[in-house]
Each structure stands twice: as structure tokens, then as C-alpha cells.
């Protein structure tokens, strides 16, 4: 995780570094720092604990100005969030910012101690600065020194190095953590994400795995892992980045929840015609892959995993295509067996989640028919490395808690379901019922958003609770999982989701008169089953909150509150029912005074394993 920006220019780059860090904060916000060669030729390092604003405030109290520098915003992996652990790390003239994890840092540290170095931080990064310094004493340019050091490192890195004795160049190295060069006129930039560079340039060069680059204000040289000079294509990015503006909303998460009807409508536009789903972006030549698949393997993490779980219910029950869903960090190490004619689908908002990317790369060595990424960030590694891509087009999602990326992933998955159904020559009614439900989905979500005041009121019941159970059945079980995840991550209340039928196999022991149980119970073929589960909780004194559009014969009875929701089509129920749960978590977090957009210990994009 963490975010990196480096700049070398003819102009003052301090503001560029700080603005870049502000844009990169979604990758981590424990602490931040920069190192800049000032106009007198002195290297100035400033670091601050907490969000980037603390660093901006610190810089404002100085007259710092310089034309070469590196900067970093951190999500702690090794070493607690503290100023001493913030990047850049320095060893004499060498400064470094690093994303990733150096797995063998302890053995390097032992060797450095023998050579007389002392590490001041608890990080895995500082050893690299010392190693570069040690190796530099043997001679050679900074580029050559870094090329000699890299084979000693195990793990992942995207790093940028500045030597204050050679303030005309930056050296960047990539292995397992992305870096992109921004090309300017008499100035160049490097960042872990193009969004940090877009205010300066749209001309981008992505480094490939193993690449090392030397960047000056007027030249860019790139070498592959073997040290050969290589050419990497320059692209002109058309990425739109609207991160800066919360509009009329108090938080990004709130804005993103309310954007859902609009972004879904936009995603559907032009794709629903004559009761059919058109996916021109897939290319007709690839349709044969989808037609032939006999099994789907979904891999994802967190909220994206929960979307995959919903899709499993859909694929199996509507088109009888067997589907397995794996958490990416499990998939990559469990030696999965590839089923006959299996097709891999990765789901990711960011497209940079380390485990999901690793799973995709692993799958390429296996016998999958192909891979499809359903993703929100067009410039991401996942998009660039997948065979087929369907963008969710949700627009920038800044709040750490995923909301619109989840519902747009589900929308795209439903469109895909309809497409596969058509390609496989299944009953036209399946495709028609999906198209009909999708057409009214933005309206249905709007109706759910009208429940906001109800959620404000409900939130009061939860602020002093320490545990909450979520129950669902069928495709609502993953919605219970997603509801619980939303509550945990922004309200810090422990929440667990269970398939309601599992209750009596253990969790029922948790029920007492202080345990709130949120039940997702839309009016569908499983309603009577879930009503029985509700009775099991009631009989043991549990505190029930039932989200439903069914008639329960009462609005509220003792210890059971019915949250009456508007009608939704059966197939799109999971998409609609998550919306009130997102609102509920948002209001609980708000009442608890938590940082809704940047909850503690988390980052938006998880680029380390
Ligand atoms: C959910 O609210 C989280 N922020 C998190 O679980 C997220 O979904 C997960 O890290 C996966 O991210 P991705 O979709 O960018 O791959």
C-alpha cells in the first residue's frame, strides 16, 4: 500500500509533491513525509504522523522550495504509525520511499549491523537506504548501485531513490508494486498511481515488473531485470479524476451511496436494447469463450468477494453454470484444481489489490479458458493484465468503505449473466427478466435511499452495542456479509454474518437480550424459512431488526422491529437491499464520531499481501 510521488523539474516541486500525496491518501494515511533538495543544495526531510494535511501544515511553516524531491504517504506494515517510521528513510546521502514489503529485511539488518549501520526505525524499508549507501561506496553511478542492490532484496517493492550528491536524477525500481512515470517538458515525474501525476501530465509510461528507471528532467532510461535497456510505450491517459469534490455531501461515503442510482443508470445506458444485453467492449470474437465456459471461478477480496458470492447464487440458479468463489489470498496458496472449461473472473474496485493481482498472474500458468476483470479503475494493473475487461464505470470511489463499486459490480455481473445465458442459447425469458429488472433498478435504489431518515433513527439503537449479527438466506446471505463488513469497518462494532439456517449450529448460543440481530428477509421463496429463523431468535430474547418488503402481520412487536422496505424485483434484491445497510452503517459511524471516509487502520487500496 502507501503512495509515492517523485518529481524533478526546473520549477519548485514542493506543491506538486504535496498535492500528489493528497491524491494518493486512499492508499494509506497513517503518516507522510517528503525529502526535497532545497535551493542551497541541502536535503530537507519533513515527516508527520497522521493524514497528509498534517504534513501540508508543517510545510506551510517553512520556506521550503526545491526542484527535485520524493514523497510518501504510509499505511503501516512493519513498524507502528509513527513519525520515526514515516518515509522517506535516509542513510547519509541516500533517501528512499518504498511501497511493498522487504521480506528479508531482518537478515539484511543483521549484516548492516556488522558493517556498523544503525537502524532508527522499525521499518523494512530503512535497510534498503543503508544497503544502497554501503554499495555506493564501492563506486558506480546511482543507477548501477541500485541495480547491484536489487538482487539482495526479497519481497515486493515500488521504490524511488534520491542521492543528494547527484541531485539531477531519481532512480525508480518496480517489483510487485506499480510505478508510473509522468513525462513533461523539461520535467518528469514518478508515482505509484497516475492520479498523482495527472495535474502535471497525461503522458504516462508504466514500468513493468523488474524494471529500473533513471529519470532526469530531460531524459528517461529504462532497464529490464537483466539490465538491458528497454523501450516502454508512452500512453496518453484519458483518466478522469473527480476526487476533489464532496459536493453537497458531508462525506465521500455519503456522496458515493447517493451516486448509486446515477452511476448504475449510466452503466446500463446503451447496453439494454430489445430485451438484450449488448457488450460491444467484449468484442464478438471473445463471445466464444463465454459460450464455451462450463465453470466460473471468481477471485476477489473484501467487498468485491461479497459481490462474487452473490454472483455464485445467480450463475448457478439462473443459468446452471457451476461457480466457485475464492478469497484471493486463499486461492493463491491453496493449489486450486482447475475445472474443465473454467473461466476466471476477478472483481476489484481498484484493480491494484495485491492478492487479486497475484491470483490473476497465477491463473495464467493454469488451464483456465481465459480471464475477465470487472474493475473500476481503467489504468489499473488488473485491467492491463486481464484477457477481457468490463469496467464498472462507477467513477472515483474515495471512501474506504466500498459502496457504489459493490452495486456496480453486481450490475455488471447481472449483465454478464444475461449475456452468457443468451450465448448458451438458454430460455429468452431469463435474459428478458434480467433486462426488465435492470431497467427499473436505478429507480428502486432511489426508493431505498428514501429510507435514510429511518436509518438515522435506527442508528441510535446501535451506538452502544459491541456485537451485531446479520442473517440472510440465498443471495441475501452475501448481503448480510457485506452489511456486517460495512458496520465493522466504519463503526468498529464487531459484526458477523451467518446464513440464517446455520444459526442453530452454534451462533444461537450468542443470543441474549442485548444482542441485535439484523435479518435480511425480502419477500421471496425463502421467506417462510427465514421466518422460522426469526422465531428461533425471538424465543431466546434476541433483539430483531427485520429488513423486508413482506407482510409480517405487524409493524413492530416486542423486541422485533420491522423495517418496511419498498418492493424490488427478486433478481435485483441483493443490489437494492445493501443500500439501507450502507446508510445504517454510515449513520452509526457518524453518531460514534468516527472518521467515516478514513477509518482507522485501513486504506482504500490494499497493494501489499
Ligand atoms: C470494503 O469496504 C473494503 N474497503 C475492502 O474490503 C475492499 O473491498 C477490498 O480491499 C478489495 O478491494 P478491491 O475491490 O479494490 O480489490
From TrEMBL:
Superkingdom per UniProt: Bacteria
EC number in record: 2.6.1.16
Keyword field contains Cytoplasm: yes
GO MF term list: carbohydrate derivative binding; glutamine-fructose-6-phosphate transaminase (isomerizing) activity
Class in the EC hierarchy, top level: transferase
Location in the cell: Cytoplasm
Annotated Glutamine amidotransferase type-2 domain residues: 2-218
Keyword Repeat annotated: yes
Main location class: cytoplasm
Alphabetized NCBIfam families for the sequence: glmS, PRK00331.1
Function: Catalyzes the first step in hexosamine metabolism, converting fructose-6P into glucosamine-6P using glutamine as a nitrogen source.
Quaternary organization: Homodimer.
Protein name: Glutamine--fructose-6-phosphate aminotransferase [isomerizing]
Native source species: Candidatus Erwinia haradaeae
Amino acid at each position: 500500500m502507501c503512495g509515492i510521488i517523485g518529481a524533478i523539474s526546473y520549477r519548485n516541486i514542493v506543491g506538486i509533491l504535496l498535492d500528489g500525496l493528497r491524491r494518493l491518501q486512499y492508499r494509506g494515511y497513517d503518516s507522510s513525509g517528503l525529502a526535497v533538495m532545497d535551493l542551497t543544495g541541502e536535503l530537507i526531510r519533513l515527516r508527520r504522523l497522521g493524514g497528509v494535511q498534517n504534513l501540508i501544515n508543517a510545510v506551510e511553516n517553512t520556506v521550503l522550495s526545491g526542484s527535485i524531491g520524493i514523497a510518501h504517504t504510509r499505511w503501516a506494515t512493519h513498524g507502528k504509525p509513527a513519525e520515526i517510521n514515516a518515509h522517506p528513510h535516509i542513510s547519509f546521502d541516500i533517501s528512499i520511499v518504498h511501497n511493498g514489503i522487504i521480506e528479508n529485511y531482518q537478515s539484511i539488518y543483521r549484516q548492516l549491523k556488522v558493517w556498523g549501520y544503525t537502524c532508527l526505525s522499525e521499518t523494512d524499508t530503512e535497510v534498503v537506504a543503508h544497503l544502497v549507501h554501503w554499495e555506493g561506496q564501492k563506486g558506480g553511478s546511482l543507477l548501477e548501485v541500485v541495480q547491484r542492490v536489487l538482487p539482495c532484496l526479497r519481497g515486493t517493492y515500488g521504490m524511488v531513490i534520491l542521492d543528494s550528491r547527484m541531485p539531477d536524477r531519481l532512480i525508480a525500481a518496480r517489483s510487485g508494486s506499480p510505478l508510473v512515470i509522468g513525462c513533461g517538458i523539461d520535467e518528469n515525474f514518478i508515482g505509484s498511481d497516475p492520479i498523482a501525476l495527472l495535474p502535471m501530465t497525461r503522458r504516462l509510461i508504466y514500468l513493468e515488473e523488474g524494471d529500473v528507471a533513471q529519470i532526469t528532467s530531460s531524459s528517461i532510461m529504462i532497464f529490464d531485470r537483466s539490465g538491458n535497456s528497454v523501450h516502454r510505450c508512452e500512453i496518453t491517459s484519458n483518466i478522469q479524476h473527480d476526487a476533489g469534490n464532496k459536493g453537497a455531501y458531508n462525506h465521500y461515503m455519503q456522496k458515493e451511496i447517493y451516486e448509486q442510482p446515477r452511476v448504475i443508470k449510466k452503466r446500463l445506458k446503451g447496453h439494454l436494447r430489445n430485451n438484450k444485453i449488448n457488450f460491444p467492449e467484449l468484442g464478438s470474437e471473445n463471445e466464444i469463450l463465454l459460450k464455451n465456459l462450463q465453470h466460473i471461478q471468481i477471485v476477489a477480496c473484501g467487498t468485491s468477494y461479497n459481490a462474487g458470492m452473490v454472483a455464485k447464487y445467480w450463475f448457478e440458479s439462473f443459468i446452471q453454470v457451476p461457480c466457485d468463489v475464492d478469497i484471493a489470498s486463499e486461492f493463491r496458496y491453496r493449489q486450486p484444481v482447475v475445472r474443465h472449461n473454467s473461466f476466471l473472473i476477478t472483481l476489484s474496485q481498484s484493480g491494484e489489490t495485491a492478492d487479486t493481482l497475484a491470483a490473476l498472474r497465477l491463473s495464467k500458468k493454469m488451464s483456465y479458458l481465459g480471464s475477465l476483470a470487472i474493475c473500476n479503475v481503467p489504468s489499473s494493473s488488473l485491467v492491463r493484465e486481464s484477457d477481457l475487461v468490463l469496467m464498472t464505470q462507477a467513477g472515483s470511489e474515495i471512501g474506504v468503505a466500498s459502496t457504489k463499486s459493490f452495486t456496480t459490480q453486481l450490475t455488471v455481473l447481472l449483465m454478464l449473466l444475461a449475456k452468457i445465458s443468451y450465448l448458451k442459447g438458454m430460455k429468452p425469458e431469463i435474459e428478458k427478466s434480467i433486462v426488465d429488472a435492470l431497467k427499473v433498478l436505478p429507480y428502486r435504489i432511489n426508493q431505498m435511499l428514501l429510507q435514510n431518515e429511518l436509518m438515522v433513527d435506527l442508528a441510535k439503537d446501535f451506538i452502544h452495542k459491541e456485537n451485531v449479527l446479520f442473517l440472510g438466506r440465498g443471495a441475501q446471505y452475501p448481503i448480510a456479509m457485506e452489511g456486517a463488513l460495512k458496520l465493522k469497518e466504519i463503526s468498529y462494532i464487531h459484526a458477523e454474518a451467518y446464513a440464517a439456517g446455520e444459526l442453530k449450529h452454534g451462533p444461537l448460543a450468542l443470543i441474549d437480550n442485548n444482542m441485535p440481530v439484523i435479518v435480511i428477509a425480502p419477500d421471496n421463496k425463502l421467506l417462510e424459512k427465514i421466518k422460522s429463523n426469526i422465531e428461533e431468535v425471538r424465543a431466546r430474547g434476541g433483539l430483531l431488526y427485520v429488513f423486508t418488503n413482506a407482510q409480517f402481520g405487524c409493524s413492530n412487536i416486542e423486541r422485533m422491529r420491522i423495517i418496511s422496505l419498498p418492493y424490488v424485483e427478486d433478481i435485483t434484491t441483493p443490489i437494492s437491499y445493501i443500500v439501507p445497510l450502507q446508510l445504517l452503517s454510515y449513520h452509526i459511524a457518524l453518531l460514534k464520531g468516527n472518521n467515516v471516509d478514513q477509518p482507522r487502520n485501513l486504506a482504500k487500496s490494499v497493494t501489499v499481501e
